[in-house]
Structures are given as C-alpha cells and as structure tokens.
C-alpha cells in the first residue's frame, strides 16, 4: 500500500463515521470582511466623575461645627482678655472716690459724691434709683445696708450742705461713710 492509498482510505473512513447531531445543521460561517466602522454599535460611555461640589449634607454640618467652634474659641479668648485688662467696678469706684475727695469746694465735693453714689445705685439696682432726690434718696441709700447713717447720721450732709450758708463738711467722715456703703454693696454683689 502506498501512501496515496492510505490517505484515501483514511478519508473514506472519516466520511463513513456518523456525524454528531449538533454539528449536522450548522452552516459554515462566512468570513467577516466588514470593518468596525460599518457596524452600528455605539461606544461605551462612562459616567461623569463625581464632583466635590455641591457638598453632601454631612460636610455642611461638619463645616458649620468647625465655624461654631472657632467663633466660640474667639469669643471666650476675647472675653477673658478684656476681663483681665479691665479693672473691676469696685476698683473704678474707689479710684473715682479718691478723685472726688481731692475737690476743694465743699458744695462740688458733696455734689460729686452724691453723683457717684447714684451711678453705683443705678448700676446695681437699676433705673428706679435715678429719679430719687431728697429724703427718698437718703432712705434708699439706708435701705440698701440696713443702717440709718444717711437719714440720721453723717450722710445727711448730702441733702443739707448745698443749702447751708457756710458749707463745710467733715470730709473724712463722709468719705468713710460712702466707702463703707460702697464696700457693703460690692460684698453683697459677691454673695448674690
């Protein structure tokens, strides 16, 4: 047997074999010669990148909290620094009392002393002290420390001195009385 006969015999044997059922009805595929441009397929479009703006609600809340913390920090620092720089009201009043004591004219001295007492009273007790004059003013001063030093004591000079023919007063005693009243007001403020 020659090689040619063997080849023919092998071909005939392959043809004689039964075909598998799934391959019998399949037509041979023609070669695709169409270009990619000829096919009506669209390109894949990717979604747009997620932008950072507008911010999500959680970021807005965090931003608001940060701003709030900065403002609170600034306010507390500012309040603390102004409080440290500012002398206390008591120190201011005592400084002004010292200045009033140096006034030579007794009428002006008593007038300025009464003004100082009235400003302290308005600051501590409100506007109801601003309209008081005469006996009512002295009673108001006495009522704020449960003594009668203004209506029946040395403090009566505040009412009488401007109308005296020869205005003279015991400055030390009057300033001592006013100083005691002011001290009492500041210690009462600390208790309440």
Please provide a brief summary of the model.
With 192 residues, this protein is an all-alpha fold. Helix content is 58%, strand content 0%.
Structure description:
- With 192 residues, the chain is mainly alpha-helical.
- 58% of the residues lie in helices and 0% in strands.
- It has helices at residues 3-16, 57-85, 89-101, 106-125, 134-143, 157-160, 171-191.
- Helix 3 (89-101) packs antiparallel against helix 4 (106-125).
- The longest helix has 29 residues, at 57-85.
Question: Which characteristics define this entry?
Answer:
192 residues, mainly alpha, rod-shaped
List the helices and strands and how they pair.
Layout: H1 3-16, H2 57-85, H3 89-101, H4 106-125, H5 134-143, H6 157-160, H7 171-191
Helix pairs in contact: 3-4, 3-7, 4-7
